[in-house]
Design goal:
The protein has 88 residues and is an alpha+beta fold. Helix content is 41%, strand content 31%. The two termini are 31 Å apart.
Length: 88
């Protein structure tokens, strides 16, 4: 039984890391001096229909916390273009 639990934990950690890395790659490796400001990202998200609660840096992406279509969201955006690249 312990082996099954251990194997499950290892698999969860491996797949979780892979998903995060995939989202990070979708944002690219744009130098910070080319990123739009957090205020500009917030304005773009509002224009896309988000009720923004917070914008923060997550790896090489912006992560927008808020509400869209009546649901809580944590979505990832390319910091240079403001394009949505994933959901967390």
């Amino acid at each position: 039984m312990k082996k099954i639990i251990l194997a499950s934990l290892i698999a969860s950690a491996a797949f979780g890391s892979a998903a995060f890395a995939e989202s990070d790659n979708a944002c690219g490796n744009v130098p910070k001096d080319k990123w739009m400001t957090e205020d500009a990202m917030k304005a773009k998200a509002v224009a896309m229909g988000y009720e923004v609660r917070q914008v923060k840096v997550e790896g090489t992406c912006y992560e927008v916390y808020g509400i869209k279509d009546g649901k809580k969201v944590e979505d990832l955006f390319n910091p240079e273009t403001g394009e949505q690249v994933g959901a967390d």
